[in-house]
Amino acid sequence: VQQKKMTLSQPNETAGPGDVADLTQMYDPTPSVTLKEKSTSRRNTRKRRKAPSPNCILDKKAVRKALDDRGIQVSPRHLEAFYQALHRQHYPDLPTFLENYDRHERKDYDNMPSVGPLKNSVSSKKNRNKLQLPKVLLQFLADPDNGFVTLTSRVAQQQKSADDSTTKLAVQLHDGQLVESVIMRYNNHNSSRASLCVSSQCGCAMGCTFCATGTMGLSGNLTSGEILEQIVHADRILAEEWEERCKENENMNKKHDKTYKDVPKLDLIRNVVFMGMGEPLDNYSNVVDACHALVNRTQWNLAHGRVTVSTVGLVSQIRKLTQELPEINLALSLHAPSQGKREAIVPTANRYPIESLIQALDEHMMAYLHKRKKREAAKSGNTTDTNMTTLSEYTAAERMKESTRRRAMIEYVMLEGDTSSIESAHQLGKLCENRHLVVNLIPYNQTDVKDKLKCPSWDHMQKFREIVASYGAFCTIRRTMGADIDSACGQLITLKQKQEEEEQEREKHAALKVPVRDIEDAVPTPSAANTNSTKAKTTSIGSARDLTPPADSTNDVVSNGHKENAASNDALDRWILPLSVATSVSAACFLAASTLYLKQ
């Protein structure tokens, strides 16, 4: 390859078609695609983001690569022990973590209940559940040039709904881009639980017509560390809220013990759904790494059934997820019962027919039964049964029995029109018949998309639900949370970033209209006083609203800078007419010459 590159780089020699083809095969391991495939594939135009520098310590692959590059040998057990200790300390920065670990070694950790001792305080025996970290790993973590920090992002903005059930977080990443995650609280008498909706990409390339995130386009994928950082931010916010409630009750009641018993315990994140910005399976490797960390016993230790991945329907990636994480819940964003209707609102639907989507959903739902049959066949010594891979080998009774234990979800947005008609309800019901799927009807939440879409009435949605449920499917209407702060389903978009861009555009237009040279030139004219610019209303430079002069005294307050600019504009006006005439004459000559040339 190097010889061919040197040969092609010589100025006196040219490369033949065979050489170019050979080099293409050497450098490009992916198969060649046609123009039609390129036009339909949105992932070919994916924008690549720069890797975080410094990187997030939660990105295990990056940490392992950095250790290997330095020649540091750390066993997987010790690395898992490090992440367990980091999780127990609620993810402080690395210097604080090392300081706490050092205190834990010297046994002066009386006020540190989050760090487990290496030795039992009674028997003085080593605790087998806690591994002592090797010195080489501690030295690597203590090195300020190791290229890692605990968190690379920060919460730039928080919005809370009127009923305090939803909090939307605008998380600013290392490169300045914003992604949004939503905390949803579910209070049930004396207990409460919280779910977190996380983003997996900056924007989205799927381009669904009813989704606000689809209008942003795709700016890049999130790393597994950046996905997990959203959960860390949410955990900290919930912990701070619980502490504030404890302090309020403490002030109201002097008895501390009783106060803490009366405070309902606000659990940390119990459910994580990948239903935020982006298509999770379009960022497959990072999303799967984040899922492994969520269900890892040394970290968040969530049950597999409490992690849900939503997808618009990438069949090949769904099957990969079934092979790697069959216990994870899967939600299919169907949104239409037929192929033609789905292609009208989901642009990527032309790549995967609905039949293949439902089959992939069935395979994921039946993965438990398949694994159990494999184990039973292996115990009995029957190797022929271990090759079962198709759904046709399971009886209808077996499928119904297994689906009652574990169900896959179909998400269906309710849009006024063909997709919410009575005919569509019957089509959707027949599609889910004998499958025991959970159909979740999502009322359309108003967004700023170009098409003026509407949500059907509540009575119509109830009738639609009853028809689908009559075919044996478990059909529900999703509870809308956070619509007043644009955090409901389909409304996630970086509004702050959009507002900043609009603000910059207004500043540019204002600068072009009135060239300001100094602070004294910022005196508004009567015409500018009537503009609707938000920044002009909130500016505090010299109390601009109070300094607006009357119409007859405008010339008295115009600065020298304005006069100079006006004189320069008059000088430019003299050249406008001659230049316009010259341009018209040259254009006419060009058209005449082109006509004669074409005739010849």
From TrEMBL:
Where in the sequence does UniProt note compositional bias of the Low complexity kind?
527-540
Q: From what superkingdom does this record's organism come?
A: Eukaryota
Instruction: Return the PROSITE patterns for the record.
Output: RADICAL_SAM
Keywords attached to this Swiss-Prot or TrEMBL record, sorted alphabetically, are: 4Fe-4S, Iron, Iron-sulfur, Metal-binding, S-adenosyl-L-methionine
Composition bias, kind Polar residues: at what positions? 1-13
Give every Radical SAM core domain span: 190-484
The record, for InterPro entries, names: Aldolase_TIM (IPR013785), Methyltransferase_A (IPR040072), rSAM (IPR007197)
Composition bias of kind Basic and acidic residues appears in: 505-520
- Cofactor dependency: [4Fe-4S] cluster
Q: Give a yes or no for keyword Iron in this entry.
A: yes
Instruction: Please provide, alphabetically and separated by semicolons, the GO molecular function terms listed in this UniProt record.
Output: 4 iron, 4 sulfur cluster binding; catalytic activity; metal ion binding
Quick one: where's region Disordered?
A: 1-56, 500-562
Q: What is this protein called?
A: Radical SAM core domain-containing protein
Supply the source organism for this entry. Entomoneis paludosa
